[in-house]
Amino acid sequence: MAGAFFQDTKVWDVALTVSPENYAALEPVGGRGFDVDFKYVRAGVRIAGQAFKDAGLRYKGNSSFSTARGIPKKSFKIDFNKFTKGQKFLGLTKLNLNNNVLDPSQIREALAYRLWRKLELPGSRTAFARVTLTVPGRFDKKLLGLYVVVEQVNGPFLKERFGTDKGLLLKPERSLSLPYLGEAFAKYERVYVPKSDAKPRLAKRLMAFTRLVSQAEDAEFAKRIGDFVGFGQFAKFTAAHTVLSHLDSFLLRGHNYYLYLPKAGGKFAFLPWDVNSTFASHRSAGSPDQQFDLSVKQPFAKGQRLLERLMKLKSFLESYGAELKKLVGTHFSREAIGRDMAELRKAVEPTVREDEYSDHREFLNNFEIPKDFTSSESGGGFRVVRKPLLREFVAKRHESIAAQWAGEREGYTPGSRRRPSGRGERRERL
Length: 430
Known about the structure:
By secondary structure, the protein is of the alpha+beta class. The chain is 33% helix and 16% strand.
């Protein structure tokens, strides 16, 4: 059912209706950027012709929320059964509406997820939405603009991809090294952030995995790691991050991914999340030129223990190298990625034109140089965030990878930098 909805070139009409009291309650109390606590309110949602009078609605995001602080175009999460148990949309309980305010191209997230699907890796499906907001006495079907709709990683997602939603789902935060924290699962909750019940046998499997990564001698690690991680799947996962220069991820920050263990004796699957900083656009991961030149040999920061150890194993290194070359020659070839960009651009451009919180000329500049373009131009009253252009990224990433394979340059190895301890963990409210 949901497959008919998740067409990544489709722009659906989505209408949100919120009472004035509930609209005010959406605003977090005491939070002004990161680590805010968003609360669900009751809202009306009309999507793809279906109406829900009593759905849950809340804001979401960290940087995307902060950037949109002064405008109504926030990112939203919809929980269809938050207040009406059993209520679903095409079998789905949750959807994410991401506002794209950090992406003038408007397609980064959809483009990255499309690549994951082409690689036959488990990842969220996407569509686009033209969202309007009604708040009686304040907004009457106000156009918020273009959003990307991202499938939630939860029970329905897991059941479709893995045949079961009874496993252990984790969303690690700031866990670059995958640390072993002892034999009490409670100690793992802050770092690994379980999103499902941690049954004892599943919890023990996580402990055994992290102990192997953190403490095992090289010979034991080499012998047993294949029991916990599928080399083919993880090689593809790493290659995709590398090619897309996605550093706001497990490569550098130790977050923005899910771990799923379908059964106690099984292997951990790695799932992508929050890919709007792909294509060299993570602002604290180095300059754009450095990210364009991300190393293919070591695209990860020191301390990424799993990759540090796997890259020393000939079998994994060969698998990773093969997947990297295959990806660059197929789905990320200049021709293939160009076609994907053109398809998504065509789908969203009419909505971008009428979106007062985007800049149509900045949008065009990601695909071609607009006539009479000057970088100082800006449309509307909203400050557009500047990011590396998609067309520039594709050209320079291919140039860098080719030069690295030819032995002409080393490539950029990212460095992990800790944030001030007083702020605490920065956790994306998703």
